Amino acid sequence: MSEVKPRFEFRTFAQNFGMVINKMRKLSPVDKIRESSEIYIMSAGNNENNTKVRDDLMDIKVFVTRERGLEQWNPRMKGSFPMKASVIGAEVFAAFGVAVSDFKREEYTLAQFLDEIIRPHKDLAAVKVFKRRYGFTVNNCITEYAELLINGAAIQTVAVESVSVEDILGAKDMLGLNDYENINYLLAIKRIIGMEPLND
Question: pLDDT digit string (tens) for 162-173?
């Protein structure tokens, strides 16, 4: 089997993308429309591991490298609930980069994990994210526009992904994204909930 190469990504957030979306629709038909409700776990001790839960499945991605303003992320862990306390302590908290909680159970459902471990922890926050995603293909890149509710706050995101840095840079130029800041979900959510300042 051939090795799966992790994709590079450009992602940005705004209240309204206006002409960017118009250009996207002119360049490509909508490939698919998807909706999902997810929970992102924010940690004050970490800016390099992106942790989210969807449909009782936990997905942790780790930042790999930055190249020409783009970011590359790789899967670090995938797990399902109920989840053993030993796994939460050894693998999940390693990604959070904060002090490990005292576990009172040997195994946790998602609700127990959130209510008994995450929400009481002073350095962690569970953030509800609703996504309505519109998929396109621009310059051979997976391209996405999404309408989001982050703890009820409405915002939009646009992303361009590919294993080819050159293809992404070309798509950014075609879509008029060159003046937008590259912001991953981790940083964007932290800014919205006040865990990170709005400007570096």
Answer: 999 999 999 999
Residue holding tokens 């936990």? 58
Model pTM score: 0.92
| pLDDT tens readout for residues 67-80 | 999 999 999 899 99
List the domains of the chain with CATH numbers.
8-193 (2.40.320.10)
Q: How far apart are CA 64 and CA 49, in angstroms?
A: 10
DSSP 134-171: EEEEETTEEEEEEEEEETTEEEEEEEEEES-HHHHHHH
Q: Give the whole-angstrom CA distance, residue 123 versus residue 60.
A: 18
Alpha helices in the chain (DSSP H): 19-27, 85-87, 93-96, 110-112, 165-175, 185-193
